[in-house]
Design goal:
globular, alpha/beta, three-stranded parallel sheet
């Protein structure tokens, strides 16, 4: 298969989030983990949230090996009271951007 010359090849994203705090719900796996990794590579401090603490902790360990700082917090996003409590905890870690 040959490349279509009318379609540009994807370029790596380049942006600086140093000093920012990003919260990623679902950041332990799949697309959420990929998004969290991109944000972390751009310099953001991460808070990874999701239902499975073990999955979140594994993601945080894998990020740490690449110099990305991530805090984890297990929370079910469908429970509004716990989600509000989580948001308060995340904000105390660092202001959320």
């Amino acid at each position: 298969m040959t490349a279509n010359p009318k379609i540009a090849a994807p370029q790596p994203m380049s942006f600086d989030l140093t000093g920012s705090h990003a919260v990623v719900i679902g950041g332990g796996s799949g697309i959420g983990k990929a998004i969290a990794e991109c944000l972390g590579q751009a310099g953001a401090h991460l808070t990874l949230a999701g239902r499975r603490r073990d999955v979140l902790e594994e993601a945080a360990r894998s990020f740490a090996g690449r110099g990305i700082t991530a805090h984890v917090d297990a929370v079910d996003a469908t429970d509004i009271d716990r989600l509000k409590s989580f948001a308060d905890r995340a904000e105390k870690t660092a202001p959320v951007d």
